[in-house]
Amino acid sequence: MIGRTISHYRILDKLGEGGMGVVYKAEDTKLDRIVALKFLSPRATGDAEDQDRFIHEAKAAAALGHPNICTIFEIGEHEGQPFIAMECVEGESLRARVRSGPLALDEALGIAIQIAAGLQKAHEKEIVHRDIKSANILITTDGQAKIMDFGLAKSRSRTTLTETGTTLGTVAYMSPEQARGEDVDGRTDIWSLGVVLYEMLSGRLPFPGDHEPAVVYSILNEDPAPLTGLRTGIPMELEGAVGRCLEKDPGERYQTAGDLAAKLRHIRRTLADAPTCTRAATAAKTPERARHRWPAIGIGVAALVVAVLAVWLRPHHLLSPSDTETADERRMLVVLPFHNLGPPEDEYFADGTTDAVTARLAGIRELGVIARQSAIQYKGRAKNIPEIGEELGVEYALEGTIQRERIAEGTTRVRIIPQLIRVSDGVHVWAATYDEDMESVFRLQTEIAEKVAMALDIALFAPDKRAIGGRLTENMEAYDYFLRGNEHFVSRLFQSDTEAGIRMFERAIELDSTFAAAWARLSMTHIWHYWTRYELDAIPKAREAAAVALRLDPDLPETQIALGYLSYYADRDYEKALTYFEEAQAARPSHAEAILAMGWIYRRLGRWDEAIAQAQKALEINPRHYPLLADALGNTFTHLRRYPEAMLYYNRAVSLEPHAAFAYTGMAWVHLLAEGNKEKAGRVIRDALERISMEEWIQEFLAGSLFLITIVPEAHEAMNARLRLADLDLTSRLDSMLCYVARARLAEAAGREVSAKAYYDTSLTRITPLVESSHGLPSSPTLHGIRGLIYAGLGRKNEAIHDGETAAEAVPLALDAMEGASHLEVLSRIYARAGEHEKAIDLIEQLLQVPSYTSIPLYRVDPAWDSLRDNPRFRRLLEEER
């Protein structure tokens, strides 16, 4: 063919050949341009009917005209063989690029966004590609992605499984509906793009197999391995986006390629906007700021979830002193994050080893060990040891390097070089080099703890030796999954983190069913899933996992913590939970998690002074822990109406974490509660919305600001802008419901009653299944209270009052000082809106006598109470100085 002229195309060279035909480089002698000429094999177009359909679809594709679609110039025929003349693109296929390994996150996102944009253009013209795969994506020399072979995909009536010569690669990209031979639409291209994105990020296909039936079975019945388990540094939001593309049911996927492109652009912007140090860390792990925050929806405010979800959606981390030593009698030490000298994907192993050494040292009674949440902030540090020592108030710092090396199949060695440094003069008190088989990792952790104690002239007694010794598992692969799970658990800002942690712990248990620590951590993760996302079926799973941990190792501190969380979250048995946490701390005096949890319990029990004393002492081992500053101190002082002290800790929290949401809502409420200053509160809200991401806004900021919406009109425009951007289909049922409630309240504030009722109605449909399925569980009162407020917005008085009273009766103040006050606050709002003014004022008077998010200045400016302003009792209340 070289040198021949076909129509007005002179063949210059052969570019390639495959099952669909052969491609030549040719010169268009009419228009003086270089084109690609593709001669199609009979298999590519089928019988006469299929050829007619092919010609029709190819003509439609030729009219697309999009920069990310290879342009079709002409469809012709030569000696009975159809051909297509198309744009000649110089570059390499995406498949060839991926063969060299996974792509950088930004590159993969950029390519996927371009593909999605091209697909959106085609789908708008009702053209479905039906054969999106990495081999059909060409990357030009300047980085532009081009979708090839539009109009050449198989016809709707045929499936590649019935044809001989089908490549395994093509089958691997097929959607379930394609594999079943069903009619397809644009959502099948979205599935295939999800496969391509998975391939770019991991270097492998999500549904591999040795033969076509095995691949098809996997596509129809199995879930792909989580990306976060294959590559460190994949943001959970990105894993969630890929997972949504790969939903078996087309109705659960992104419904348009444009929606997918918008989501990927947002993720890319989020990564680009992260601080430089965070972006560097993302190559190996989720951004550091996500590691020590939590879904802080609850700020205990005088509102829907301010009061109600405030008590629910937060990690309950507070601190208490050791039962045997005061901090003044202990030597203070920080274990700084060990520097990973291995590949970036081993970052989780370095962090896990640091945590393991920290945990063992925390069991030594004469040591005060800085908690992980504060120490991790010095990862990749620019500060020197004396600066760190001054900030943390420590006398010694343990730092080191770690490298894991895979010698041969099944053989791994680990090299750890720890150094103990005296902060005052920088002297290296002790250092060592360990280079041993991976099987020795637990012994190395114990020996490092022993050597540190020896260097500090600390005698180790029997309890100390028990605390620093022990081997968690004999299965190193199980331990590896355990470390991966822990990374997700401590980063559990988003639901996807929690779900990934569950998968990792379950895999660890599959490999070693006697792994008590993994069972305990699995129980904690399940109960956290219930507590924050109302996953009601998580409670029995948490109970089962905790029971196994108790049977395997009842003395393990992690077992006690798991049992404590069950008593706390699932049973509301605070005294019993306190006992479990005390047991855990007795075994490990600097056990941050146990100490944190005890402080929250004191607050629930109404022992406010003890809770504050606990938090103040907690600062000694966790001085840079955001939840401790913002919630354990700032939020507690707000409840007690000690507003200057609350603002002090909120400010410290914001300076530590300017991108976190909880402290901002706290500051806004303090301005309202202390002085009724709507202008200052509005500035805080606008500042917060400029700093926090969409996901954090939905999961952390939205609930705490729902009632601020109507109090602070200056924030309306900013809140409306965020809600317009919120992709409600991507959130959980709970998050989606909150977004609709927010829209309803914004519409109310703007006087758009019809729209407000429509939004309330939608939120009602989303919360009712949760209410009905939560009967008898601790979440039930909270959900009833929220639904009561929604009913009130719909003007359904009797149902609103019934739900509000149900919540308040289920959790009285005597049972829970925080949640009880929250339910009374919600009920008072329902009464006011329903016209039961005297009952509302009765509750207001009661709330003003106990710690709560109520105050006279707030009642003066909150429009929720406008219906009471002519009531003499209410007017007298507003005249009081409190």
Question: Quick one: biggest sheet?
Answer: 7 strands, mixed
- If classified by CATH, what would the architecture of the largest domain be? Alpha Horseshoe
Shape: globular
Low-confidence stretches: 153-169, 275-328
Quaternary organisation of the protein chains: single chain
CATH-derived topology of the largest domain: Serine Threonine Protein Phosphatase 5, Tetratricopeptide repeat
Number of domains: 4
Overall mean pLDDT: 82
Percent of residues in beta strands: 5-15%
Structure overview:
The protein folds into four domains: 5-87, 2-Layer Sandwich (Phosphorylase Kinase, domain 1); 91-273, Transferase(Phosphotransferase) domain 1 (Transferase(Phosphotransferase), domain 1, Orthogonal Bundle), CATH 1.10.510.10; 304-314 and 625-879, Serine Threonine Protein Phosphatase 5, Tetratricopeptide repeat; 325-471, TolB, N-terminal domain (Rossmann fold). The strands form three sheets. Strands 10, 11, 12, 13, 14, 15 and 16 form a seven-stranded mixed sheet that branches. It has a six-stranded antiparallel sheet with strand order 1-2-3-4-6-5. Mean pLDDT is 82; it is low at 153-169 and 275-328. It is globular and about 95 Å long. It has 41 helices and 16 strands. Helix 19 (476-490) packs antiparallel against helix 20 (495-511) and helix 23 (557-570) runs antiparallel to helix 24. A hairpin with a 2-residue loop joins strand 1 and strand 2. It is of the alpha+beta class and 882 residues long. Helix content is 55%, strand content 11%.
